[in-house]
Every structure is written in C-alpha cells, then in structure tokens.
Amino acid sequence: QVQLVESGGGLVQPGGSLRLSCAASRIFRVIYSVIWYRQAPGQERELVARISPSDSTSYADSVKGRFTISRDNAKNTVYLQMNSLKPEDTAVYYCNYFKTWGQGTQVTVSS
Fold first, then answer.
1. 8: left (phi > 0), else alpha (psi -120 to 50), else beta?
2. Dihedral, CA atoms, 68, 81, 66, 18, nearest 10 degrees?
C-alpha cells in the first residue's frame, strides 16, 4: 500500500508563500484524484484542491487564484503552492489518495 508524506509547512507572515509537498512512498498507477484537505482547530476538514489523473484541477472558492496544485510524476510528488496567505489559511494540511492519508503538516499564518 502506498504511503503519503507531507512536508513544507511552517510559520509565515500574512501575504507570504509556502509550498507543500505530498510524496508517495513508491511509484503507482494513479487512477484517483490526489486531494489536499485542511483542518483548522474546532472546524471540519475541508477540501482545498484536487488534481485528477488527467491533471485537471479544481479549488475551494476560498483559495482560488492564490493556491496552485501540481504534480511531478518523476518524483511521485504532488505540490500545493500557496501564495498571498491569510491568517484564515492556518490549519493542518493533509493530502489524500483514495483511502490513504498523510500525517499532515501544520501551516500557521501570523504576524
């Protein structure tokens, strides 16, 4: 079973940028979308961005125009480029593939 490992989180000031990575433990044939979710304290987990096997993408309204999801097949990695970060983007970010979840990476946006 493939494992997913997120990285790239941290503390950033409002207006700053971060790039999250979701690395798969092995090469596998992608037949489902890879999805980034986030969960803030006391809130439900919400979908942030999705990339399909054909590389079509979709985003939550709250991040459209600021976040970009992409894939590097040679590195078995999906990225989430986050620009113009806001305090309300603070959350633990998780990547998901079918029934597999990563451990999450904390993103904190604060001055």
1. left
2. 170
Q: Which of 44, 43, 42, 46 is nearest to 63 (CA)?
A: 46
φ and ψ of 100, to 5 deg: -105, 130
Q: Are 19 and 77 in contact (CB under 8 A)?
A: no
Instruction: Give the per-residue pLDDT at 38.
Output: 98
DSSP 12: E
First-last CA distance in the chain: 40
**Residue closest to 48 by CA, chosen among 33, 30, 69:** 69
Instruction: Give Cα 3 to chain centroid, integer Å.
Output: 15
**One pLDDT digit (tens) per residue for the chain, 111 residues:** 789 999 999 999 999 999 999 999 876 778 889 999 999 999 999 999 999 999 999 999 999 999 999 999 889 999 999 999 999 999 999 999 999 999 999 999 999
